[in-house]
Amino acid sequence: MVDYREILRLDHLGYIKKDIASSVHSSRNTVSEVLTLAGNLHVCWPLDDDVTNESLESLFYPGRNKDNGERLMPDYPKIHRELAKKGVTLTLLWTEYCLEASAAGKKPYMSTQFNDNYHKWARITKATMRIQHKPGDEMEVDWAGATIDIYDEVTGEISPAYLFVAVLPCSLYVYAELCPNMKSDAFINCHVHAYTYFGGSTRLLIPDNLKSGVTKNTRYDTLISRAYKEMADHYNTAIVPARVKHPDDKPNAEGSVKYATTWILAALRNYHFFSIEEAKIAVSEKLEELNLRPFKKRLGNRRSAFEDEEREFMLPLPKAPYEPAVWSAAKVQNDYLISDGINKYSVPFDLIGEQVDIRLTSATVEVFYHGGRVASHVRKTTPQRDPIRQYNAAKCDEAA
């Protein structure tokens, strides 16, 4: 049997066909044919140890010695690209392949052999992720366990900074951002920045069960925080939290967190940062290096895989940027005023004693009752003096 593995290995090392043929004891025509077939099917070195010469031969010459010349060879790279499209399955592609074979006057492979050969091609060419992950369909997110130390220039006090990681499972393209804390506003803002970095949003968002985003996640009930859900609605994505203690629900985020811990956090371990802004710049530089690192077992890198396979399938970003908001609940007091923690704002007097929901943004204060907005105010940026207290203070000054 032809030593297909050795031909691919020597070609990867840069040997000319004449030397390869001499080494594997095959003709130069055979070597040329094997390399041409490998190029057409995107098969390249290195290969996994379990990829044998027998499996390569069955891939290069399916049905050899069994009226192979009468059968139409499937275009596996094209099949792989078509599977990325919404609703496309191997059954549909096999049906179209049969019509194509009939038009060419050749016999098609049966559906079982068609599927087996595609899966074999996908495994050998390291294209198996497409089988499980549609491009632009999911974004997995998590916090890294390790932190970066931020030093105070005056006191020398050390504060930890936390690394947010988002990954697109199909291309493994990564976004990472450093935050001073893991609170809800930082968590949600990181999602906004991730979608901006990717240039689009995804159909599904898969977070871990963090209190900043997921209030409750049991077998029977899942509660998403209102601010987190509002952000997801703005980007037309659905939140599907991973099950508790089931990291396999987001394996790519888990793997990318480890990868980012090594190539971002560990790579910066000997640096001393005296501000969060300085550390953020260093993290963004390491992020670009991470996404440009070549894959070990497939051609290209995370950036090229995203550009070639995933970018066109991302959902478009909304025209208006998302405005982060904080939700809270309060009971309306007898003065029918609610507070944003600094200033007070009026609501309809007939809501005295009722529970209302308050939505705070940097510019507005909105009040909702039973899902309907009942009041909206421009948010004041400086504390306003209470007129009653101001009047009483004036009376006291007059008495004095």
From TrEMBL:
Signal peptide: none annotated. Pfam families: Mu-transpos_C_2. Residues 131-311 form the Integrase catalytic domain. The gene is istA. It comes from Muricoprocola aceti. This is IS21 family transposase. It comes from the Bacteria.
